[in-house]
Write a structure and sequence with these properties.
alpha/beta; seven-stranded mixed β-sheet; three-stranded mixed β-sheet; 5 helices; 27% strand; globular
């Protein structure tokens, strides 16, 4: 993908920014993080110094709507485009929300389809399945179902294009 948006930073931020740098095809990543702990961890490990001018990370507050939905309160106009979203935040349990709606906001703003991966987060997957139906699927990502290392949720990820 040419334009990646990531909600919730971490190891995936490092991996994706490194891959974008290595492949050097003009792709970029915009990452949004609300947790000072994870943001500080990225700073202390030198992650953000690896990110060039096209790849950005922002410490961003989370807003909770009256419908018990939350979202990263970022300026969507600073994002040029979106082809892929990695949805791994915010922590909806921490904010006592039913779902985070940033992908809906991106879809409404850009009015074009994009692919996504919801990292675990079963309630988030169910919310998007209720909104977009068969466009949202569950898939086992990187784990054999018979492994001894399964999490309680089976670590199914939500994938699709909306």
């Amino acid at each position: 993908p040419k334009s990646i948006v990531e909600y919730g930073s971490g190891m995936t931020t490092l991996l994706m920014s490194t891959i974008l740098e290595d492949l050097n095809y003009g792709g970029s990543i915009n990452t949004f993080e609300d947790d000072h702990k994870y943001y500080s961890l990225g700073e202390s490990t030198g992650l953000y110094s690896k990110m060039n001018g096209k790849n950005k990370i922002e410490l961003t507050p989370v807003v909770i709507s009256d419908k018990k939905q939350c979202y990263y309160d970022h300026n969507i106009n600073k994002i040029d485009s979106v082809d892929f979203v990695l949805d791994d935040g915010p922590n909806i349990n921490k904010y006592n929300c039913d779902a985070s709606i940033n992908m809906i906001m991106l879809q409404e703003h850009f009015k074009k389809p994009f692919s996504f991966l919801i990292d675990g987060r079963i309630r988030q997957q169910k919310f998007y399945q209720s909104k977009y139906g068969d466009k949202v699927k569950q898939s086992w990502i990187g784990i054999d179902k018979k492994t001894n290392f399964l999490r309680e949720d089976g670590y199914k990820c939500g994938i699709g294009t909306i």
